[in-house]
Amino acid sequence: GAVVSQHPSWVICKSGTSVKIECRSLDFQATTMFWYRQFPKQSLMLMATSNEGSKATYEQGVEKDKFLINHASLTLSTLTVTSAHPEDSSFYICSAELAGDTGELFFGEGSRLTVL
Amino acid sequence: GENVEQHPSTLSVQEGDSAVIKCTYSDSASNYFPWYKQELGKRPQLIIDIRSNVGEKKDQRIAVTLNKTAKHFSLHITETQPEDSAVYFCAASIIQGAQKLVFGQGTRLTINP
Q: Under 8 Å CB-to-CB from A60, ≥6 apart: which residues?
């Protein structure tokens, strides 16, 4: 199957700093990637849809100026949490879809962010 | 938009027994229904999926059924084993361009030896 890799797998930062998370499709090209957030013991909530070469589409309630998404190539999307606060601490997971409308999504390993 | 409801939130069964998890969805246009297994701190793993043109799909001990009229689908695990213990998520989406998965709330399944 297709492989999606995320980095870093975990990060601890101080309140007010920014953190960048990378999501790479290793063996396929992904024009679209998705960013999810998962709080402890909760479900995955879609934050935004990342489109290669264009602006990301954010879900209702997600601040686009706080969660900056850049999809500069067909294999890389980045999520930057700006001015992080403790309430931003969460598990962030990206996913990518194979071309051809198969429906199946491939998930990255996830990145656990802890903001002190 | 799509809304997916999943029940139960927790399920405990004896090893060897069957487990059933149920989901309902709201958008009649949804046509793709995957199930994911997630272990603590890990990424979700696709275990089975079904498209709206079929009513049932089976893969060894795992099966999924879909009732489009009632807008609900279910996961069935037979002959459960301790390694089946995990959190299971159902999801629904429309396969059309960039599809967005909407997840259910999750079911924590515990298999008791």
A: none
The CA distance from B101 to B71, in Å, is: 16
All residues of chain A having their beta carbon less than 8 Å from the beta carbon of residue B101 are: 34, 46, 95, 105
Please indicate whether, in this complex, the C-beta atoms of A109 and B43 are within 8 angstroms of each other: yes
Separation CA A111–CA A11 (nearest Å): 7
DSSP conformation class of A27: S
Instruction: Tell me the shortest Cα–Cα distance from A18 to chain B, in angstroms.
Output: 23
Q: Which of A22-31, B57-66, B104-113 has the lowest mean pLDDT?
A: A22-31
Nearest-by-Cβ selection for B95 from A49, A93, A101: A101
Q: Are B98 and A51 within 8 A, CB to CB?
A: yes
Q: State whether B43 and A42 contact (CB < 8 Å).
A: no
Q: Does B94 contact chain A (CB < 8 Å)? A: no
Identify the segments of chain A with pLDDT beneath 50.
none
Q: What tokens does A41 get?
A: 């013991």
Coil, helix or strand for A86?
helix
User: Do the Cβ atoms of B44 and A107 come within 8 Å?
Assistant: yes
Q: Give the per-residue SS3 of chain B.
A: CCCEEEECCEEEEECCCCEEEEEEECCCCCCEEEEEEECCCCCCEEEEEEECCCCEEEECCEEEEEECCCCEEEEEECCCCHHHCEEEEEEEECCCCCCCCEECCCEEEEEEC
